[in-house]
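In the lab's daily routine, each protein ends up as an entry in a very long ledger. A line of letters takes care of the sequence, but it says nothing directly about the fold. The three-dimensional part falls to structure tokens, numbers that each stand for a local backbone shape. The outcome of that step, for a single protein, is printed below.
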Amino acid sequence: MILTDLESDSGTLVNGIPVRERVLDPGDRITVGSSLFAFQMENVSAAPTSPVELDDSISRGQTRQLRDDELLYLHPESLAALPPSERLARSLSALLKIGAAINSIRDVEGLAWQLLGVIFEVIPAERGAILLIGDNGEQICSPIAWDRVSGPDRPVHVGRSLTRRVIEQRAFVLENEAPESDVSSSTGPAGSSHSVLCVPLIVSDHALGVIYLHSSSQATSFTHEDLGSLAAIAGLAATAIENARQFERLGLENRQLRAEVNLQHDMVGQSRRMRDVYQFIERVATSDSTVLIQGESGTGKELAARAIHNNSRRKQRPFVALNCAALTETLLESELFGHEKGAFTSALYQKKGLLEVAEGGSVFLDEVGELPMTLQAKLLRVLQEREFVRVGGTRSIRLDVRFLAATNRDLQKAVREGKFRVDLFHRLNVICLTMPALRERAEDIQSLAQYFVSRFAQRCDRTVRGISPEARACLMQYDWPGNIRELENAMERAMVIGSSDWILPEDLPEALLDTATSGASSPAKYHSAIRNLKKQLILEAFEHSGGSFTEAAKSLGVHPNYLHRLVRNLDLRLALKRNTSA
């Protein structure tokens, strides 16, 4: 295929080189204005795109290394002493083109190709590369390179030690090797000349990468003026590349924020863990794949399932939820698959199951780990064949639903123990989402608590100004084994029994006060005294029982499990250990 530039204002570049007409090869990159295209052909594998190979070859040629203050372009008065030349005119033209590119090109790769093409117009290099450092500040990423002599199939070799020296020392290097040298260059045969330019890309004393040029022809050996021109180009190019990187970062962040804003859900929280959950839901909602939602009890697994449904193409169809642990095996089968009239004694009429009711929508199987083994086999068939039979029926019914499942059990452990079918586990575990426990997103506790206060204030017809600092301290110091559901219950209790304009520590459940430590943000003296009294009673009970949990619980009149919880919440393990050893 032949590409022809019809005298466009912005010009046409192929692999960074301006062209009027050119026969395209697979893998060629075409730049028109701010747009970047890749040329491909069916049944033809694309040529490698400007590969770069770093090697540790050491040149023994003459090397000229300059510092920032020695560069020609930083001394305008020295320009007057230079005779006007074609190269100076082309250098000024190149700087103007780079200035235009800064305002027109917004992606880093397209900008790098444009810059390489401009450099080839100014400096007689046979091959060149722009190497950028990754965000970690070490690894070279997204190299752009082109060998104008050998073509795209020939990799451009770049000296590893040279690039490291240029980056670390902020050095501008011109290196020339005589033809009679017995050391072969990294790109040319033995005995060829070797001319290299390597300059850093620096913005605000931060190195972004390097520009590397090489020539193996003695007629095109680089000069001191070439080094100055390349350094001037690098100064503008670094700013352009950094701006393009920032533009790409802002664009990505903007898309993520828009996705979160457009995502419909009833979850509360802006912690890093929850932002990951929102992004996950936004990605998987558009597909029909089965999703397994894991997490502790009370972490909001059903809310996540509803969010997946509400942001999918099935959102106008039903969302049907079934708790697999709430019904007996017989009732669960009838609820899920439906039954025919006369299927069993009380089946007086035909009944559609939840699978039929959810046709075109989503089925949410909560606590799927509690399914009996017989129903696991039937559910597996539904997932595989997308059809089922009503209880007492003989006709297969086709099904178009999306399955969402949730569990607070370790299904892999259940599979190993033979309590859950391995084939069903793999059918459910197509895409897995783990909801974080509340203790893993502690920064969301206050916003969640305030949300529940506002909701229950309307329900209880109370006016509450907020949560007091002491109560907030109690909320933050508790580990919330019941997660969001426990926090919701705690806030409902505070709204019901509280009487002031603020949520106070005494309005909170006793378990929260047991974990509150002393200090500036501790609860009222009354609760501190109660806490100390509990500690004293427990220590005395253990002392009289000889360290036995069972006997101590019996003497206190509480269940041993509750005593274990008190010891943990009151942080008495170390004290009990000391008393026992004594």
About this structure: The mean pLDDT is 78.
